[in-house]
Amino acid sequence: MRLVEGAVAVDDVDAFVAALADVAADTGATVQAFDARYVVSRRHLERAVELADRAIERGENVARDRAVEILLYAAGRRQITDALELGVSEGENRAVVLVDGGDETEAAEAVRSRILDRSEPTLGDYDPDRVREFFAITDAELDAVDGDVEALVLERVALLVVEK
């Protein structure tokens, strides 16, 4: 799995998603973009990929598309419309683009050169309040894990399996 980080101005979300799909089709890779404000760590996305792949292997996936299944796990949501909040939106975005499988090197370079406006570090520079609200993380939970938002997000990702 590779992560490509950067900034992008999105005028049309559908066109942006189509450009990602073109890269995926050209390279055989799974390509999924995330709003960096919600991605707490590399492990967050690694775990989403692991669990999505396991669901697909078992025939328990919700989405037909692997990239969407990964998005569902990253969001800890079964409803695609709810999970889309983790994706990029119209306007200026700081993005983390996951590239996995196929020709990852070519796909990552295509995302860097054809999709993102500029490269910049975004991973780990999440918005704690936004993440806490989206994942419904309470003060009591944070106190129980010594303030580790990442641990609680990883728990939410893993709990999607249980909720099925």
Describe the structure.
The protein has 164 residues and is α+β, with helices and mostly antiparallel strands. It is built from 8 helices and 4 strands, in the order βαβαααβαβααα. The protein has helices at residues 13-27, 42-57, 66-75, 80-83, 104-115, 128-134, 139-144, 149-163; strands at 2-10, 30-35, 91-100, 118-119. The protein has a 4-stranded antiparallel β-sheet with strand order 2-3-1-4. α1 (13-27) packs antiparallel against α5 (104-115), α2 packs parallel to α8 and α3 (66-75) crosses α8. The longest helix has 16 residues, at 42-57. The protein is globular and about 45 Å long.
Keywords:
single chain; 164 residues; alpha+beta; four-stranded antiparallel β-sheet; 8 helices; 52% helix; 16% strand; globular
